[in-house]
Amino acid sequence: MVRMGRYGDTRVETRVLFDARDPACTGPPADAIDVQFRAPLTVSLLLERYLDGPGVEPVVGFLGAGHREVVAKTVSEVQFVAGYVADGSVSWPARLEVATAAHLYNNDDETDIRLHHHLWVGRTAVDLRDGVRRPVDLISLQRALANVVWSAYLRVLHAVTTRDLGVSWRSPRPGAGAEITDPPVHVGLTGQEDLGICTAPWGPRETLGTAHPRRPGVPGRAGTPGRRGGRARPLLLGAA
Predict the structure, then answer these.
(1) In tens digits, what is the pLDDT along the chain, a chain of 240 residues?
(2) pTM for this entry
(3) Cα–Cα distances in angstroms (integers) from residue 89 to residues 10, 142, 153, 197, in the given order
């Protein structure tokens, strides 16, 4: 697929795929792509430590404005690096249709906090050249998730948690991704812990490129179910 257009053409606002804040909403289209950005496990362990005890105020602040900042910058990055539609063998800049929701838990399992957010991407988008709706360039999307977006998400998450929660990040083991090491919530982790998959309140959608700390951008199976069925408990719900 040959990319056309000039650098920066895709730096535009996204369109709303559906309103995730509407309680009457039936959810994303059946063919929407669900990209899940799962925070490194030590973020969730830190939240578990402080949500019910001293130090809860900065955690509440992070779960509000701080995490919304992380989600918003992730949306902008996806639009910028993957905002293309396919027209034959050519890929043209386009305005993606997306929606987001952040969850504190996976599905109906409130045993352990597993902070993550969903970014649903519509299968079609409007070509910025001529206003015609065309299929999203899924190859560009997959490559962007694997090579650019996951790293950008982590950089913003590291910066926001450091600023809002006063934590320090480093790699706890050779070859491992960064985790929070101050406070030392990483102690005892092996790096093989399963962060799970969340099917969200509206059931599974195709997980094209689940962002994962150990396997960034690995394509998932269509409709990959979570560990349990049921409705996810939303921490933050918002359309992007």
Answers:
(1) 788 888 889 999 999 999 988 888 889 999 999 999 999 999 999 998 888 777 788 888 899 999 999 999 999 999 999 999 999 999 999 999 999 999 998 887 788 899 999 999 999 999 999 999 999 999 999 999 989 999 999 999 999 999 999 999 999 888 888 999 999 999 988 777 777 788 868 888 887 544 444 443 333 333 332 322 233 333 332 333
(2) 0.82
(3) 19, 17, 30, 33
Tokens matching residue 28: 């994303």
Closest CA to 14 of 104, 125, 88, 118: 125
Output the CA angle 35-59-55, nearest 5 degrees. Answer: 155
∠ CA 54-167-75, rounded to 5°: 105
In angstroms, the first-to-last Cα distance of the chain is 28
